[in-house]
């Protein structure tokens, strides 16, 4: 029997979302009602941080997670993310950080709200070198961030692919400040309410400001 004939991508995402939601509920139940933890538990972490990473396709979300986890960047890796990906990364005294990497293609965006459940922080990524898709990215951002049930969740905004924007060395600092201001104005980030938020310009390829990303995650939560 060919199982693929009976299940679509939507079916797969629905099943994964259900299983992951059950995992969160079970974890919460255990934290609330189990008084005595096992004496031996090599997998247990005192705290669990869920980071929800979203943005339209081809902005570098999966490359960011790979860079944070392994310190590496594969310039020849162009395979688009087709389903939820969860990577676990130690967060020092904060415990375990789970990065939920969401597919950014149009037909997967309707599933974002399923993955957002119980997030401790939201990360939104932009390809700052592709201004032709700014309007599309802005629309998807506000569609998510305006939801009442997400109020109060900290937000980290990452402008990736700064390495593709050419600036002279002498004016690099001022150019970055100007670009950052232009992005804030275009996306109307000044209208963000009911949450702490921060915008950082990064380059996953050149490992620029990646350490600041981790620091900001731990501070915002």
Protein model, in words:
The chain has 221 residues and is of the alpha/beta class. It contains six helices and six strands, in the order H-E-H-E-E-H-E-H-E-H-E-H. The chain has helices at residues 9-33, 61-70, 112-115, 134-145, 172-187, 210-220, and strands spanning 48-54, 85-90, 96-101, 121-127, 155-160, 197-201. Strands 2-3-1-4-5-6 form a six-stranded mixed beta sheet, sandwiched between helices. Strand 2 (85-90) and strand 3 form a beta hairpin.
The Cα radius of gyration reads 19 Å
Instruction: Please state the average pLDDT score.
Output: 79
CATH architecture: 3-Layer(aba) Sandwich
Number of helices: 6
In helices, the fraction of residues equals 25-40%
Largest sheet: 6 strands, mixed
CATH-level-4 superfamily name: P-loop containing nucleotide triphosphate hydrolases
CATH topology assignment = Rossmann fold
Q: What's the domain count?
A: 1
Key features of this structure:
alpha/beta; Rossmann fold; 6 helices; disordered N terminus
What is the secondary structure topology, with strand pairs?
Layout: H1 9-33, E1 48-54, H2 61-70, E2 85-90, E3 96-101, H3 112-115, E4 121-127, H4 134-145, E5 155-160, H5 172-187, E6 197-201, H6 210-220
Parallel strand pairs: 1-3, 1-4, 4-5, 5-6
Antiparallel strand pairs: 2-3
Structure, briefly:
The chain has 221 residues and is of the alpha/beta class. It is 35% helix and 17% strand.
